[in-house]
Amino acid sequence: MAKPVLLLLPGMLCDAASWAAQVAALADICEPRVAAFGDADSIAAMADAALADAPDSFALAGHSMGGRVAQAVYRRAPQRVTKLALLATDFRGHADAAARAAEAARRDGMLARVAAVGLAEFARFWARQVVSPSRLDDAPLLAAVADMMARHTPAQLAAQTLAGLTRPDFADLLPRIACPTLLVAGDEDTLRPVSVHREMAELIPRNSLTVLPHCGHMVAMENPDAVSAAMRHWLLA
Question: Whole-angstrom Cα distance, residue 212 to residue 182?
């Protein structure tokens, strides 16, 4: 009997390396496949790309931006998603026009910094913003995150930050998610804090929430064993 497919959606400036530990750890119970978004510049286009290469039914996990894409995939094809996992992500759009304008200004600043110093230098800086403070002396982890980000192009960064800026709000979707849903948050993630995941847990009917101690935004790379264990339990439940 063929193993069920687990479709893994990376976050911004992430690729298969962000899920490498889970691919290795879970291959005995599923067929992991990591999606790629290319130059897609909207959450909708990313969801369409993920669905185009997906089988008729599959388990679905998304990290950060990939978690938003996972929600868009579920909105498009709920009958095809057997299980859903949302890691270090969010469901909200912008609170108001001022919040959107502030995010647009931050995006412009990020793109200007990349233009000035190059993506590799920006990636080394940004890697230190997305891991737990307790891991800032973990040179192999920081190098893995920075190298992964630097494999992208400035055009892909521009496209992915535009996707974030124009993201939809999924608050109306979460109460309609019918499949078993795993939520994973790092307790030191300042980008997608635990409080957001608790809000999601209040809205999604069939969910379990795992909060990882001493963990920042890159949960699957920072604490791969705990994430893999939580995902194994979710897949086999």
Answer: 13
